[in-house]
Specification:
This protein is mainly alpha-helical. The protein has 16 helices and four strands. It has helices at residues 8-27, 33-54, 61-71, 80-91, 96-115, 124-135, 176-192, 199-213, 220-233, 238-244, 249-255, 257-268, 281-310, 314-324, 333-339, 344-356, and strands at residues 155-158, 165-169, 360-363, 370-373.
Length: 375
C-alpha cells in the first residue's frame, strides 16, 4: 500500500483526471495511425529535451528532432557512433556533452515505451540496465554506468544564468544504505502496483522515493522521470496506458522547474528518510497531478499542429525542409532562395503561412526579417 493516505482533495482530483483520461482516449479513436505516430514522436522529443535541460543540457527541441531524424534513418535507432561526428559538427563541438546526454535519454525512453511489459516485475537489475543505457553514449560516465554510487551525492538545483547552486535534498549514503533502500523500494513497488486502485499515486511515490535515494552517481533525475513513465505503462489502467506515450510530462516539469525542486525539498525536509511515512507526500502528489493534467492538454496542441502540417502547400513543405535541415539557423528569404528553386514571392507566401500556423517564428520586420523553426 501507499506510505500515505490521500485526502479528499487528492481523491477528487484523481477522479477528475480519470474522467479526462477517458475523454482523451475516446477523442484519439478518430486519429489515424500516422497521426498517432506523430503524437508519439512529439512526446518523445519533448520529454527528451525537457529531461536533459532540467539537468542543464542545452539542446533545443528543434535540434533534438533533427538528431532523432538523423538517428532514425532506414529504421535504425542505434547508429549514434556512426553519425556522432556528423551530428557534433552540425550542432557545434561545444554541445557534445548535451548531444551525448540527449542520445542516452532518447534511447532509454524509446526502450521504456517499447518494452514496458517486459520489465514487470521490476528489478534492480532492470533499473541498473536502464541506467547503463542512459549513460552509454557519454564516455566519462563509463566507469559508473549501471552501478550504484560509491561517493556521496546530492540533489542539486542550479541556476544556469548565475551559476548559483543549492542543495535540494541529501540522499542516502553510498554502499549498504543505498542497496537496502533500493531493495525495499523495488519490493514495495512490485507488491503495490497491481494492488492499489490509483496507480498514478504509486508512480508518484516511487519516483519521489527513487529521487530521495539518488542511487547512482549521475543521471538520477533523468532515470527517475523515465521510470515514472514506465510505471504508468505498467499500471494496468487501460486509459492511463493508452495516453502515456502521447504525453510530455517532463516538458511540464521543465516549465515548473523551480517549483519542482521546491516541492522535492519541502516534501523531504531536505533529506532521505528510511521510513517513507516521514515524507510529506501531499505536496508532491498535488504538484504531479497538476503537471499530469497540463501534459494531457498538450495532446490537443500537437493534434492541431499535425492538422496544420497536413494542410501545407507543396511550396510551404519545401520551405519547411530548409529549416529542418538547419536546426540552429535563423533563415532569411535570401537564404531560402539559395537552396530552393522557388520564386521569392512564393517563398514569402509560404513563410507567411508557416508563421500563421505557428510552425515558424518571425524575428524582426521588413527585409531584415529572419525566421526560426518552432517545435
Amino acid at each position: 500500500m501507499l506510505s500515505f493516505t490521500p485526502d479528499s482533495r487528492i481523491e477528487n482530483q484523481l477522479k477528475a483526471l480519470q474522467g479526462l483520461l477517458v475523454e482523451t482516449s475516446r477523442n484519439l479513436e478518430t486519429a489515424t495511425t500516422e497521426e498517432k505516430r506523430f503524437l508519439e514522436k512529439c512526446a518523445l522529443i519533448s520529454n527528451v529535451g525537457a529531461t536533459t535541460r532540467i539537468e542543464n543540457a542545452v539542446l533545443t527541441d528543434v535540434e533534438i528532432e533533427w538528431v532523432d531524424t538523423i538517428l532514425s534513418k532506414d529504421g535504425r535507432t542505434t547508429a549514434f557512433e556512426e553519425k556522432k561526428d556528423f551530428i557534433i559538427d552540425k550542432l557545434s563541438k561545444s554541445k557534445q556533452r548535451s548531444i551525448e546526454e540527449v542520445t542516452g535519454s532518447r534511447s532509454v525512453l524509446s526502450t521504456v515505451y517499447l518494452q514496458a511489459d517486459e520489465f514487470k516485475p521490476l528489478t534492480q537489475a532492470i533499473i541498473r540496465g536502464l541506467h547503463r543505457e542512459l549513460l552509454k553514449y557519454y564516455p566519462p560516465a563509463e566507469h559508473f554506468a549501471g552501478a550504484y554510487k560509491t561517493v556521496t551525492n546530492r540533489v542539486i538545483s542550479r541556476n544556469n544564468e548565475t551559476g548559483e547552486e543549492h542543495t535540494v535534498l541529501e540522499p542516502t549514503d553510498p554502499g549498504i544504505m543505498t542497496e537496502m533502500a533500493m531493495g525495499q523500494l523495488v519490493d514495495w513497488y512490485n507488491g503495490t502496483i497491481d494492488a492499489y486502485h490509483w496507480p498514478l499515486l504509486v508512480a508518484i511515490e516511487f519516483t519521489f522515493r527513487f529521487l530521495a535515494i539518488h542511487p547512482f552517481q549521475d543521471g538520477n533525475g533523468r532515470l527517475g522521470r523515465a521510470l515514472f513513465l514506465l510505471i504508468l505503462l505498467q499500471s494496468g489502467d487501460k486509459y492511463l496506458q493508452e495516453i502515456t506515450s502521447y504525453i510530455a510530462i517532463d516538458r511540464k516539469i521543465e516549465q515548473n522547474k523551480n517549483q519542482y525542486y521546491t516541492v522535492l525539498h519541502q516534501c523531504s525536509d531536505g533529506r532521505f528518510h528510511a521510513d517513507p511515512k516521514l515524507y510529506e507526500f501531499d505536496m508532491v502528489v498535488l504538484f504531479f497531478l497538476k503537471i499530469f493534467e497540463a501534459a494531457i492538454a498538450d495532446i490537443g496542441v500537437y493534434r492541431t499542429k499535425y492538422a496544420h502540417l497536413r494542410s501545407l502547400s507543396e511550396s510551404a513543405v519545401t520551405v519547411l525542409e530548409c529549416f529542418k535541415s538547419n536546426p540552429e539557423t535563423k533563415l532569411k528569404v535570401a537564404d531560402i532562395e539559395k537552396t530552393t528553386d522557388l520564386p521569392r514571392r512564393t517563398i514569402q507566401f509560404a513563410l507567411k503561412s508557416l508563421v500563421e500556423k505557428a510552425i515558424l517564428n518571425r524575428l524582426g520586420k521588413g527585409a531584415g526579417s529572419r525566421y526560426q523553426l518552432i517545435f
